[in-house]
Specification:
Blueprint: H1 2-9, H2 13-16, H3 19-35, E1 45-49, E2 52-57, E3 60-72, E4 75-88, H4 91-107
Antiparallel strand pairs: 1-2, 2-3, 3-4
Length: about 110
């Protein structure tokens, strides 16, 4: 799974054109992956689809319908229109959700 994360991150334009930056985020992503789901801070965005955003909260993923929001480095900023449900994260799914959260973090970096 870690190899898939690294491969995905290597496709980022920022990584393709800046080896030092790429090495830095790959090292950070590797540490996050090795630390595991339980060490991932609450509030990190796990998945997004349009105005639907899923956020980590303990061993749950809280699904929200959003209004006027943005995501920057995996952090959700904005107004929750309504909570649409929760998903309990079982042991066998933690690695997959962790990988998605790591990828989401780096794909939501705002340009300077």
């Amino acid at each position: 799974m870690l190899n898939k994360i690294i491969s995905t991150l290597q496709n980022l334009q920022q990584v393709k054109f800046n080896k030092i930056y790429g090495d830095s985020i790959i090292a950070e992503a590797t540490k996050m992956f090795n630390d595991g789901w339980d060490k991932l801070e609450d509030g990190i965005v796990v998945l997004t689809k349009g105005n639907l955003v899923a956020v980590k909260k303990g061993n749950l993923i809280v699904k929200n319908e959003m209004k006027d929001f943005n995501i920057n480095m995996g952090k959700l900023n904005g107004n929750i229109a309504k909570e649409t449900g929760t998903i309990e994260v079982t042991e066998d799914k933690k690695e997959a959700y962790l990988a998605q959260a790591i990828i989401t973090k780096y794909y939501t970096i705002k340009s300077i």
